[in-house]
Amino acid sequence: MSSTASGWLQPSIQTEELTHRKPITTIDGAVRTIDDWAHEAMTVTDWAGAVTVYDRGLKYLPENGHLKNNRQYCVGKRDEAESRDK
After folding, report:
1. Looking at residues 42-55, what average pLDDT do you find?
2. Over 14-65, what HEC string results?
């Protein structure tokens, strides 16, 4: 990508990049928020807490594949941690 002397992207590049982005929906925003909350638990390896967050999200978005996938990942990590702690 080229830039002008001021460091801003050229308008044609900005326009091209913006037109190729998927619009953000309310559901996308909700999923992102749930991920952010779960990430807080994940950073301190609180896998059970992360699963709880995804369970709450799936209560409102039960068919969301992203939330289901991330929940399943956290369940696996929780189970690994529990088996190590025994």
Report:
1. 97
2. HHHHHHCCCCCCHHHHHHHHHHHHHHHHHHCCCHHHHHHHHHHHHHHCCCCH
